[in-house]
Amino acid sequence: MGKAERRRRANAALATLRTVLGRALGAAAAARTAAEADRARAEFEHSVHSMGFGAAARSKDIRARVDADPVLREVWQRLEAERDRSYTEWNTAVLPQVRALVADAAPGAAGAEGHDWLRVPGTGGEPPRLWRVGRAAVEHAADEFPLAVPLLGHGHLRINSTHGARAAVDAIVETLLARMLATLAPGQLRIHIWDIGHLTGPLPNLHPLSAERLLTVHDPTLLGDLLATLAGHIRRAHDSALRDGRRTAHGPGDPWRVTVLFGNGERLPDELTHELSRVARTGPDAGVHLVLVDVPVSVNSPLETITFTGPDVATSSMTGRGVVVRPDPPLPAAEVAALASGVHERVRAFRGGPRSFADLLAPAPRHFARDELRTPIGFAEGEPVEVVLGDATPHALIAGPSGSGKTNFLYALIGGLASRYSPMELELYLLDFKEGVSFAGLTPGSKDPSFLPQARLVGVNVNTDREFGLALLRFLTAELARRAEAAKRHEVTKLAELREADPDGHWPRIVAVIDEFQALFSGRDRITQQAAALLEDVARRGRSQGIHLVLASQDIAGIEAFWGKPAVFEQCTLRIAMPKAKRVLAEQNLAAMSLPRWHVVVNHDSGVGHGNEVAHVPDASSRGTFDLLQRDLHAALPTAPPRLFDGAHQPDLVHAADFATPSGPLLGQIIDVNDRAAILRLEAAPGRNLAVLGTAVADAFAVLESAALSLARMHVPGDCDFSVWCPVPALARRAEGLAERLRTMGHDVDLRLDDSIARLTPATAERPRYVIFPCVDGAHRWLEAKEPPSMTSGLDRLRALLRDGPAHRVHVLGWWRGVARLKDTMGFGGFDDIGAWVALDVQGSELTTLAAGQVVDWSPRPQRAIFFDRTTHTHPDVLIPFDTSSALDIPKVVDTA
Amino acid sequence: MNDPVAEYKRLLDTAHQAADTHRKHEQRRALELTEHIRDASKAITTASAREADVTREITGWWSNVTRNLTSLVWLDLTPPAPDPGADPRRLNAHLAEVEPATSAFRVALRRALWPRKLP
After folding, report:
1. How many inter-chain contacts (A to B, CB under 8 Å) are there?
2. Is residue B118 one of the residues assigned to a domain?
3. Cβ-based contacts of B82 with chain A (< 8 Å)
4. pLDDT one-digit tens code per residue, A604-616
5. What is the pLDDT of residue A558?
6. Which candidate, A880, A888, A429, A886, places its Cα nearest to that of A677?
7. Of A16, A21, A98, the CB nearest to B62
8. For chain B, what is the domain count?
9. Do A746 and A821 fall within a single domain?
């Protein structure tokens, strides 16, 4: 073996040794490296578990390490697999169920993705149980599912924002409302928005809805008013449900009211918080729902919450912990606005323009007034606003300055009631103390013979005839007593029970409307005292007997008669405030101050703010409104016409009810609810003479003529005699006219116009004799002459006639032009032989001696008189002398030849 | 239809239960890993010490073997380098091979130098 070969073998052996040593070195290093890698894997996995897989998945650091290190990537993949194993049931079985559930409970526009659903307004039907507001994902899972919340008919939604999240919050709210618009029938959603931070309206894309009042943006400073409005609606809805026997206050077809409150995260004042809690507690049952954005309030009713933790990340009470919520992207503004416009157009088309008087009316008067009277009087957001007169609101108080629309409102009220309740169910007594004839059209007129069938009495131009108001109250009190007696007889307490117990009886509800009723209390006199007492009585007892007062006035605070006697106002729990009306609502309730024209505040809660309902009252008094209704009702409901009392016109004797078959001499029309004349008792008894006092010639003659003509009608010709003595030439023609008329009626008339009057007539007669003696004092010049041989004067004989005549059926109906002149005639004998008198333009103080010493409260006024019969009266009656011109007309004899 | 809100929340409860289960698993694993990391640290210490020992012994051994051989310019005295493919489980086996390989090298070197003696 050569040297070279031996060297090569030595090198090879050294290389083998080097290899062995290298493997040993490598094995030792690899053992260390393996231990290090094992720890690194364990540390990585530990860090993932420590922060949770969900958080680790969102960690950029973890992601970078996984991307950079294949070993860690391997670990990560293993952890993912472990996670998937934990969520196997959720991912495979439950997640599809969640999607199916939302698809089922939020069908169509309520739960659709994207925005194709925006194009068509809704068609109605039951509202979905859920509404999509975004998407959600379980923290560990990649698959998203829809986030949906309940609202209509169930509860409220609260959204808590955070810095930078307002845009997302607005998007959620707008999307939610848009889904409702695209689901519900047009008009079935009313949106109220209150934003503490915005003077101009938030959610501007929805503003086309405001034209039909489907959306109302409220003043940031008037949250209290908004809550009061909602509370009032809730209360009324509950009342309506009780009345209709419904289980829920929100009836089928009632619109939903969604109120969005944008707060600033600060707590509201305690008063508003309590009111908001009350609305939240009771609202869902009445279709009132809240979306509370940054409004911290405790709500004792179903409420779901979305709480933003970042600009577009949130959590939700629907999904609970560990679920990330993201709002759906904002909808295209133009498409939302187009949807809102579409809804607005359809509502406008459906409503057919502004609501009119005809919309207040029922098709036929078929309602029953057993429990209450109920009618719409106007509209709010297109929906009718009702007025109720019943147990809870027996009487109404209406206030508003002149020209604010009170009369129009009264026409709307009367029209609504008349179209619903027949005369068997409703009787109206209408009194207007204003100068004018606002209710006169409800009675038959010369141009329009129709009248309102339910009206039983219409009083117009009674501003100076406060006695007529008093008479109405007396009538109502008497009716109260009659009903109370009937109720007692049937052992019941209320009208509704009385109607059941006495089904054949006529027990309509009575509504007495007194416009400008403060005029009734304008003086400090007996009328005011009596009227205040009677009104209080009717107000207290009318509720149970179905007698309702509707009192209208410009300013109720100035009625001195009620100071310290609040009972009347307290009983008027229904308050109606016209624009700028003062004091009719509660002190803190200023809703009337901001009312636009043709609107009213209707409040069934004694004027407290939460009872407010603002309604637009359609024109009810122009031609073609109420008059048409009246004509229709008149044609459909045959009844007797109402009594019209028009203070501006003298009643015609011919048309007086008592003149048809008079029971005695008629002196004039008594100011009373019934068409009643003052009738003098003329039996054969001492003192049955009449003195007419005063200088009003026409009135004095009217009284005497009425008496004479009615007596002439009472007796058949030949059954009595008349004497007509007129000593004043200027009045002779009128006396002749009366005598002529009496003769044409077949009676004998002893007409004297000269000194023959002094002969007088015997104080005895075989048949009744009525001496009509105008201007008795004018005959004194003849009567004072003494005739020999007895030297008795005509005056003495006249006194004897007055004293002795009545017992022998000779009665004097004379006219003296003053109390003093009557005294001259009567002398020292006093007034015992004047049993009754009618005073015209004579001051009350002059009449004391004629009225048994009592103070007579009377100030003369044109075409009015007072009548006192000492045998029957405690106080004088005010009467209106008849217009006798028709009665004096002599019928023309038709020449048949 | 049952109350969809209650149903929705009931279904979501499945996810919450899964999250709870997974969270408990992660907590348990985190505890286990804490122990494991402690053991792994010990193993690293042991392996590092062993590696240092092996490196020192092998370096010394190589020095002894190649001492006085620098004059033999035909002999390749490149020191050994760690073999990255070596199996750590065969470390002792590799160490056991060192003496036989060294003896084999000395025999081959003596023959290559004959008739001279080893330096």
Report:
1. 235
2. no
3. 22, 25-26, 28-29
4. 988 888 888 889 9
5. 59
6. A880
7. A21
8. 1
9. yes
